Each structure stands twice: as structure tokens, then as C-alpha cells.
Amino acid sequence: MFAVMKSITEVIPEGNFMRIGPNDRVLMLGSCFAAEIGARLSSGGYDVLLNPFGTIFNPFSVASSIERLRSGRTFSKGDCVHLGAGSGLWGSYSHYTKHARASVEDFLRDANEALSKDSAFFARADKVIITFGTAWCFHLSKEGVSALGEGSSYEEGYIVSNCLKRHAKEFERKMAGVEQIVSLFRGLLAEGGALAGKQVLFTVSPIRHMADTAHGNQLSKATLLLAVDALVREFPDRVSYFPAYEIVLDQLRDYKWFAQDLVHPSREAVDVVWDKFKACCLE
């Protein structure tokens, strides 16, 4: 008799997960891995608002998006940024590049029309799913502020959601600390905060940011995991963590589970995560 060798280490999600029902309104924010799960929820008939400002990677830009949704504060000309690489398009440092338009007027019209609808959705949303991608942030440098010219509403040190293909010298790249992230979201989750009264599920994207180097990516993911763990322990009744990161990088550690770029999970890997998510979080 030969013992059967286990070929995987199965990750079994544990915790007090939110349960999403057909009458819930779900806001999903964060990296492109959130988009995968959000698209499946939406196609399944759930009421989902997915990344209203486009894909967002760092916790500070996620927090800024949440505050903007709560306030409904409209975008103005001072928020507009001319995209780089000769695109000729206009956007903002709060948006992903897909929201850019051919003129300032077109961008502001579309951005503010969408914001009005999305803010109304946020006010009624009872469930929020947030996927952090990286703790590395791009801050506007002094040169970056100067390049925007007079009338810009941006200040030195502002953390952008997307660099909009502008020159690297206009930014300073820094990694956020655990306590910085915890303090930021503690304020959002506490009484009077934008997320008060809402159930929140955090995930950390398993997509590796290899431009930060392998070691830099590991430091970044560790920072995010520690911050989320602290928030779950501080708000156990409303905050939970789903281990998408561990499922892909521990249970599915073989490269056969990754796309051709060896960074993004394959469709089959997303299927595995989706099945575990359904079992934990869907009524």
C-alpha cells in the first residue's frame, strides 16, 4: 500500500463573513481582481456598483474615492489633468485612464453625471467589498504640481489613483505604513465615518506588482495584510477578510494556474476563488 501524496494545501476561508442577498446593494472598489469577482456578481443578478472611478490599487486612493462618493463633491476644472504620452485626452488624478475624454468639458460632464448616480447608490449601499492591490503610492512632486499650471486644485504630496501616463519626475513613489492605513480606515469605519453602518469585506489582490521588484511586492502585500488584520480585529462585527491572496498564492501556487504573463491568475484560478467566495458570502 502506498500513501496518496497531497498535491495542494487547501485554503479554507474562516471568519464571520458578510452574507450578500438579492436585495443588498454592493459597492466594490479596488484592483482589477475586484473587477473579476464584481463582474460575476453583476452577471448573477446582484445589485453591484463596480469601481465607479475605475481600477484603484492603493488604500489611500480607495479612501479618497469613498469620501468623494459620500460627499458627492463635483469635479471642477481644477481637478482636470492632461494625460501624457501625447494622448490628447483629459482626465483627473481620481480616475483611471478609461474615463478620460477629448476635452475638459466632456470629461467634467461625464464624470459629474456618473458621480451623481454613484453617490446615490453609495448612500443606499449596505455592503462594501474592498480589494487592496499595493501599499506603494505615487505622490505628486513639487515639479508635478508646477507642471499642472495655475488653477490646479492639486497640492504637493497628493496621492494619485493613476499617473495618467505623465512623466515619472512628476511623482515620488513611497510605500505606506501599516499604521497609516489602519488609521485612515479606522476613521472611515468609526461612528460618523463614510463606512459607518456598512458591512465591509476586505481582500488583498494576488496579482503581483513585479515593477516594485519581487521583494518590494512582498513587503507591500505584507503591509496590506497586516493592516487589514488589524481592522478586522478592531471591528469584528462589521469587518471581515476573504483570503483571495492566500488561495491563489498558496493553494494554487503552480504556474499552471496563471495567465501567460505569469502574474495574473488564469480563468481557472479565478473560478476556484469564485467558488469559495460563493460558499462564504452569498446567500
Structure notes:
It is a single chain. Helix 6 links the parallel strand 8 and strand 9 (239-241). The model has no long low-confidence stretch (mean pLDDT 93). The N and C termini lie far apart (43 Å). The protein is globular and about 60 Å long. The strands form 3 sheets. Strands 2-1-5-8-9 form a 5-stranded parallel beta sheet, with helices on both faces. Helix content is 39%, strand content 14%. It has 283 residues and is an alpha/beta fold.
Average predicted confidence as pLDDT: 93
Strand count, sense and barrel status of the largest sheet are: 5 strands, parallel
Shape by Cα distribution: globular
The arrangement of helices and strands along the chain is: EHEHEEHEEHEHEHEHH
Structural Rg: 19 Å
Secondary structure tally, helices: 8
Number of strands: 9
- For the termini, the CA-CA separation is 43 Å
Numbering strands along the chain, what is their spatial order in the largest sheet? Answer: 2-1-5-8-9
Q: Structural class of the helices, strands and pairings?
A: alpha/beta
Q: Note poorly predicted spans.
A: none
**Beta-strand fraction estimate:** 5-15%
Give the proportion of residues in helices.
25-40%
